[in-house]
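#struct-help
A.M.: can someone run this one for me? Single chain, 168 residues.
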Amino acid sequence: MYTDALKLVAQFGYARITKYASPVGRQPAATPHLLEALLTGKDTSKFSAIQIEIGNEAVARINNAVEAGESVANSYLVNRYNMPLSNVLIKSNEDALRTYTNCIVRYELSTHKSVDAITDKYNDAIAWFDNVSKNGLPIDLSEDPPVQGINDTLSIKQTESSILWERF
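D.P.: on it. Structure tokens below:
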């Protein structure tokens, strides 16, 4: 998983994500404070039952958009890699995977797809994933944890062979 609702709001802010995620035509609309409370498990007792219902609908829309955004990302990555991606690939490219997936998620959430900034970031993300599908992700092997029980040296012992190599 490259992103989730909390990573999405960390990148774009509660106000913006609440605006995109609020169910269209439902009143009262979800508020950033309610969305934060629902996503972080904070107390929601100061909100009415209808506000919480609408807030839960917004959270569901966010989770569906995250799932859709990751499916789009994976549709490109599967052209180059076995899925799911290895931890090494994810760790080496965590920021880029999250950032570009979040741009796709925001586009999926937005009902205003004609807004140039949203569409431009979406197109940038699709171009990045398309490039990765063709050229791969950079791998930083310097951060690999050491494998326990394996030494840095390999001992090879040559013994006499019973194979008659001249027959081959």
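A.M.: thanks! The mean pLDDT is 86.
D.P.: also worth noting: Residues 49-77 form the longest helix (29 residues).
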